[in-house]
């Protein structure tokens, strides 16, 4: 099958540091190539892939100090895809919604994975206007705010099995937090949980410009106040294996409708259990009592620390192997591609454009 993977340009594929969507695009692309498909990747020029690379920009936009507005660069990306669209059996987009008007005449070979949160009010009229595109959710919970659309399925993320080797022996005596420093990720909760549990905490996270004030005002003072809390900063893939693999448990104390939460399965791959708050996708990803514990408040999280440290690490890795490998993810996507090409993902009744008096009303 000839497949085009269309990636965002904010990060390279795979990203050098933080970047969940681009990382998943890389895993899909490499596994599709491994399974024998002819894959072309539209991405930034500093991407690394075994597929055919179409370098739309010289480098990832986030790392280019001269880029102020990402939209013009994505318009160039879309024009390149449009000019070459007839070369492919399937066009798989990972750029949210920018391409929707362009692909309305190509819906019989277009798939769009929605990687972000969908509970934003401006998205409702948009997806009502474009209800027939085949959409993929990355968790069932992610779908809840959406109007009726043409869901092709929920396909959970997956990782290459050898990417993060399991460490089933004795772990170092610390808890881990990894991701972004932002209010919805709740690093403040992680600090308090670790302190109450009497455990050191290591924080590996980036600080975006938009969250700098939050770090300065709320999180840095907490870090300074707790000598057992260590802020490491952003880490790369090689450092991640060591960081997660040596942790006693990962804290995932989120306070938002997380669409998936890639770090949860990264920890599971390392045989490290996860203590996660019951938000968004968490109940779909964590097998309570097997790969970690789902909690509703900080007191429950503190109580879960000891139980997590006592979990069978081989069982944590087995939960990953059963559900979250890149091999399974790519096969799920190929099955969906075949359904799209065969016309088996037609929109449901009642979702066609023009039905209903409030089509464009948020």
Tell me what the structure shows.
With 362 residues, this protein is α/β, with parallel strands linked by helices. The chain folds into two domains: 2-158 and 328-341, Glycogen Phosphorylase B (Rossmann fold, 3-Layer(aba) Sandwich); 175-322, Rossmann fold (3-Layer(aba) Sandwich), CATH 3.40.50.2000. It contains eleven helices and 13 strands. The protein has helices at 20-34, 71-84, 123-129, 187-197, 212-225, 237-245, 262-269, 282-285, 298-309, 313-323, 326-341; strands at 2-6, 38-44, 52-57, 90-93, 110-113, 134-137, 150-154, 175-180, 201-206, 229-231, 249-252, 274-277, 292-295. It is globular and about 60 Å long. Residues 170-305 form the Glycosyl transferase family domain.
Keywords:
single chain, 362 residues, alpha/beta, Rossmann fold, 2 domains, seven-stranded parallel β-sheet, six-stranded parallel β-sheet, 11 helices, 17% strand, disordered C terminus, Glyco_trans_4-like_N, Glycosyltransferase family 4 protein, Glyco_trans_1, Glycosyltransferase_grp1
Topology diagram in text:
Layout: E1 2-6, H1 20-34, E2 38-44, E3 52-57, H2 71-84, E4 90-93, E5 110-113, H3 123-129, E6 134-137, E7 150-154, E8 175-180, H4 187-197, E9 201-206, H5 212-225, E10 229-231, H6 237-245, E11 249-252, H7 262-269, E12 274-277, H8 282-285, E13 292-295, H9 298-309, H10 313-323, H11 326-341
Parallel strand pairs: 1-2, 1-4, 2-3, 4-5, 5-6, 6-7, 8-9, 8-11, 9-10, 11-12, 12-13
Helix pairs in contact: 1-11, 4-9
């Amino acid at each position: 099958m000839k497949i085009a993977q269309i990636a965002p340009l904010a990060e390279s594929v795979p990203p050098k540091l933080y970047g969940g969507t681009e990382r998943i695009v890389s895993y899909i692309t490499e596994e599709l190539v491994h399974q024998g498909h002819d894959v072309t990747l539209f991405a930034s020029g500093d991407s690394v892939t075994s597929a055919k690379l179409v370098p739309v920009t010289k480098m990832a936009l986030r790392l280019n100090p001269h880029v102020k507005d990402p939209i013009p660069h994505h318009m160039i990306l879309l024009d390149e895809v449009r000019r070459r669209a007839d070369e492919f059996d399937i066009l798989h987009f990972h750029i949210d919604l920018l391409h929707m008007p362009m692909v309305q005449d190509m819906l019989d070979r277009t798939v769009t994975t929605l990687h972000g949160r969908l509970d934003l009010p401006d998205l409702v009229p948009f997806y009502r206007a474009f209800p027939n595109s085949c959409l993929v959710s990355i968790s069932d919970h992610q779908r809840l705010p959406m109007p009726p659309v043409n869901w092709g399925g929920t396909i959970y993320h997956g990782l290459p099995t050898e990417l993060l080797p399991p460490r089933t022996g004795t772990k170092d005596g610390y808890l881990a937090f990894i991701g972004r420093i932002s209010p919805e990720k709740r690093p403040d909760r992680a600090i308090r949980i670790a302190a109450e549990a009497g455990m050191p905490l290591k924080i590996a996270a980036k600080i975006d410009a938009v969250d700098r004030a939050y770090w300065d005002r709320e999180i840095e003072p907490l870090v300074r106040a707790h000598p057992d809390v260590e802020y490491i900063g952003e880490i790369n893939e090689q450092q991640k294996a060591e960081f997660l693999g040596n942790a006693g448990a990962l804290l995932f104390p989120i306070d938002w409708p997380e669409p998936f939460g890639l770090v949860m399965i990264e920890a599971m791959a390392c045989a490290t259990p996860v203590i996660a708050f019951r938000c968004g996708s968490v109940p779909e990803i964590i097998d309570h009592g097997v790969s970690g514990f789902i909690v509703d408040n900080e007191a429950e999280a503190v109580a879960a620390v000891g139980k997590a440290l006592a979990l069978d690490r081989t069982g944590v890795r087995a939960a990953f192997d059963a559900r979250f490998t890149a091999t399974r993810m790519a096969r799920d996507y190929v099955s969906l591609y075949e359904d799209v090409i065969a016309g088996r993902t037609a929109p449901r009744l009642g979702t066609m454009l023009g039905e209903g008096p409030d089509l464009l009303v948020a």
